[in-house]
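Explain my protein.
***
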Amino acid sequence: MNQQTSVPDDFVVPQGLRGDGFRLEPLGEQHNESDHEAWTSSIAHIRATPGFQDRAWPPVDGMSLEENLRDLRLHADDFARRFGFTYTVLDDDRVVGCVYIYPLRSDPGVMGVRSWVRADRQDLDGPLYSAVRNWLVTSWPFERIMYRDLQP
């Protein structure tokens, strides 16, 4: 692992996860419209989700589809560089949430993880959290993780 990546060079980054009623895949440009619709329809719900209460995202006033695409491209670039890993949460082919795995700015040795689901699929919040929590512990090389009840 070098200082520009978050995982060892020989680690094969998972390309997804299947859970009960959802699947994860790396977030990319192809998700732009569905991603934008998912979070803009659920701003208040997301901002009340653990890990998002004190953050500036999602912006209360939303953002344009073009601005969203720029964000998706940044996440895809981080994924390609093995620095941060953003997965879209899908039910069938519709975006219903996201999972973000990034080193904490305050302590790059800790991987901070946040996830959200759209308000009309909040029934997935618990199953998504449980599946991702288990996945982080069993399939990733992180020694220190901060994700809701996981503390470094």
